[in-house]
Design goal:
Order of helices and strands of chain B: EHEEEHEEEEEEEHEHEHEEEEEEHEH
Helix content of chain B: 25-40%
CATH topology of the largest domain in chain B: FAD/NAD(P)-binding domain
Number of strands of chain B: 20
Structural class of chain A: mainly alpha
Largest sheet of chain B: 5 strands, parallel
Shape of chain A: globular
Strand content of chain B: 25-35%
CATH superfamily of the largest domain in chain B: FAD/NAD(P)-binding domain
Strand content of chain A: under 5%
Shape of chain B: elongated
Distance between the termini of chain A: 35 Å
Number of helices of chain B: 7
Oligomer: heterodimer
Radius of gyration of chain A: 16 Å
Largest interface: A-B, 20 and 23 residues
Number of strands of chain A: 0
Structural class of chain B: alpha/beta
Order of helices and strands of chain A: HHHHHHH
Number of domains of chain B: 2
Largest sheet of chain A: none
Number of helices of chain A: 7
Distance between the termini of chain B: 13 Å
CATH class of the largest domain in chain B: Alpha Beta
């Protein structure tokens, strides 16, 4: 085939018509407190891993809740489970528990 | 002549007393401090119009002096309250026909959020401290020099489970923007950063003030909660947050950090519940009979509420509450 130099990008849109929210709903069912996140970023600001790598806990759990599971397990593996995020969370979310839960739910994804 | 006791000489209490007095009702206004005026005495200018707080207070004092019906008792606290009698901390009790509780709120103690270093680092101050500095026309760092970079942090002691303050204190966002503008007016060369979670500009003129802060005063807004403060090598304050809109951690050195402290319910409210049978909300603020048609009435007939005793309120709302409570009291007295 002649290469015309064009490529087709995968759409970047979070498509809530297509995303399968089953896993996301399971996560929320087991830890309903995750829904109370106000996205203040205290977790990421205090995160040791996030200061050294591009790991961003707030972003990853939000993507999981939107049904964007690709790469979430690998991302959560960057967490060192130090628990500083849990100390600062103004909503009192068990953030470490969320990391473990997402890893458990999406390990085989 | 009917006699009503108004407990609390802040703006809500003063307004309520003045309105009652004009209806030919005898009023005793109780204030625990040495003078009336409440928290507003400590404020410099009020948002969004930058009206001097003194102007509001002198207006209220003038209104209270229009009749001879008000007796103000300062330096005394009410201990037990019934619709017919109020007992004071001095042991004295006063008979009455109705009571209005307008004891307001307590400012959140910033020492509790130790990670922000209030009381540990010199140039971490609260929004109330800054108002005092504005009043003295002396906004400076501890060593007397001019701040070149100032950060203002929203939601200190509000929306924070860790300090048992789940509610939004409502006025801090607006105060933060107001103080940023005042700081820029004072020091045009300084950089002012607001660290916010949500900017809640709920009132008339507030959004316009926010826009003015961005457009005219070049105040910077960063969406993220500061997680900790530490001193850096040149003795400035190093702050850390996530810039949530870019998704990356952020750090910067600032000369001064202003903590926008929230409104906490009075500890005294618990004893109003235990000793007087009045109902409290989970937030510790008192529970009005309902939120719409009877929002200045308590669960006990003859005991009324005005101002920030029932929820965080701005000055205008507290003033409206004072007037509404006066009307409700008058209706109730007429029915007796």
């Amino acid at each position: 085939m002649i290469n015309f130099g064009f490529t087709i990008n995968k759409p970047r849109t979070i498509d809530l018509n297509r995303n399968n929210l089953n896993k996301s709903n399971e996560v929320i069912r087991e830890m309903p407190e995750l829904q109370t996140c106000i996205g203040c970023g205290s977790c990421t600001a205090s995160c040791t891993a996030g200061n050294l790598t591009d790991f961003n806990f707030r972003k990853v759990h939000t993507l999981v809740r939107r049904g964007e599971y690709q790469g979430a397990y690998e991302e959560m593996n960057k967490c060192m489970l130090c628990g500083k995020c849990r100390l600062v969370c103004p909503r009192g979310i068990n953030t470490r528990g969320v990391v473990m839960l997402i890893k458990r739910k999406l390990g085989d994804f | 002549m009917k006699h009503v006791i108004v407990i609390g000489g802040g703006v809500a209490g003063m307004q309520c007393a003045a309105e009652l007095a004009m209806q030919d009702i005898k009023v005793t206004l109780l204030e625990k401090k040495s003078d009336t005026g409440g928290k507003v005495r400590g404020w410099h200018k009020l948002f969004p119009t930058f009206t001097p707080a003194d102007e509001v207070l002198s207006g209220l004092r003038h209104k209270m002096a229009l009749t001879q019906n008000i007796t103000t008792k300062t330096g005394c606290e009410a201990t037990t309250i019934t619709p017919q009698k109020v007992t004071l901390s001095t042991g004295e009790s006063i008979n009455c026909d109705a009571v209005v509780v307008a004891t307001g709120y307590t400012l959140f103690d910033a020492h509790i959020k130790e990670e922000y270093g209030y009381g540990i680092y010199d140039n971490v101050i609260t929004s109330a401290d800054l108002e005092e500095m504005f009043n003295k026309d002396d906004v400076r760092m501890k060593d007397g020099s001019t701040p070149r970079r100032i950060a203002i942090l929203h939601c200190v002691g509000s929306r924070d489970e860790k300090v048992c303050q789940r509610h939004c204190s409502k006025v801090c966002c607006v105060t933060g923007v107001k103080q940023a503008i005042e700081l820029k007016q004072m020091y045009p060369a300084a950089d002012v950063f607001n660290f916010y979670m949500d900017i809640r500009m709920f009132g008339p003129g507030y959004e316009e003030m926010y826009r003015e802060a961005q457009q005219k005063y070049n105040v910077h807004f960063v969406r993220g909660r500061i997680s900790e403060v530490s001193p850096n090598i040149d003795n400035r304050l190093q702050i850390k947050a996530e810039d949530t809109l870019t998704g990356r951690p952020l750090k910067m050195g600032v000369d001064m950090l202003v903590l926008l402290i929230g409104m906490k319910s009075n500890d005294h409210n618990a004893s109003l519940k235990a000793d007087c049978g009045l109902q409290c909300q989970n937030s510790g603020f008192m529970q009005p009979k309902d939120s719409f048609l009877h929002n200045t009435e308590s669960n006990i007939e003859g005991i009324f509420y005005a101002g920030a005793i029932t929820a965080p309120k701005n000055v205008a709302e507290a003033l409206n509450d004072g007037a509404t409570a006066a009307l409700r009291v008058k209706d109730w007295l007429n029915k007796q």
